[in-house]
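User: Please predict the structure of the protein below. I'd like the answer in structure-token form so I can feed it into my own downstream comparison script.

Assistant: Understood. Taking the following sequence of 320 residues as input:
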Amino acid sequence: MRIVITGPFDQRVRESLENDGHEVTHLSANVGRQELADRLEWADAYVLGGFEYLTPQVLEGARDLRLVVFLGVQPETFMDPQAKQLLEQRGVALAATGGDASNAVAELALGLALAAKRHLVTVANDVAERKWPAATGTELAGETVGILGMGRIGRRLAVLLSGFGCPILYFDSRRWEEDQQHHAAQVDLDRLLAQSDVISLHTPLTDETRGMIGERELRAMKPTAVLVNTARPWLVDPVALRKALERGYPAAVAFDGYYLEGGELEQAMGDPYRLLEMRDRFICTSHQGFNTVSAIKRASESAAGHLLALGERMGAPVGA
């Protein structure tokens, strides 16, 4: 098979695919749309692990494509609806590697909460500029943490927080069977927003959840609260968030990923949402939740399973 991979991917898994006779092209996480389109013209399979956003134009020439594997849980958020429709029309299978990065994302959410509460990014930047600030922060231990979405990542975060003695409130249509064991209580959204000192988002992006944190929800939070979003930026209305931060609430916000990502952010004439400039209140990392050695290895092995299954159907060489 001819395979195109973008973004982080385990080297040993890639070499195993090559040793089995497959032709693998590994591109950077920030590959340009035209280069990706050119590469996909000859590909049988495509592993989407970078920051690209698929459009019909990128896929137009990919006539031999049989499979797209997403290194994550929700490939739809990285493609235009028309691109997904085009894949369906051509009979291209769409697969995801699942929750292989649950612990990695949960750890990053915890790290972002701690960084925001102790002003670590601002302090580190000041020290790099030969300043020596005294930035008084707050401690996480014993504070109430609200988790929106109690899937694999939300549950893993709750387990990690047990070492901090944090009471946990969670908002989900499903009850977590182990909630009492981890001092967690299922509540409605309004109570979670009003009572939580840290609020962490772990819900998928759908038509229903897009903008679920808007002006009303931001006003309902404690002014001292920290909002962490390692899910999808568009769960939070960017205009409402900017206005809230200008008014002084919540105390800090930390995102993994932004409304513009990769090449889109580089090519944009400034930041249309004007959040990145608010460095003392808004922390943003470049969609790094999944990007650990262990998580990438697990996701790569899962992707390889999908690829080898396709190889079997195509009659291509398949390793053990």
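That's the full token string. The chain has two domains: 2-98+292-314, 102-285.
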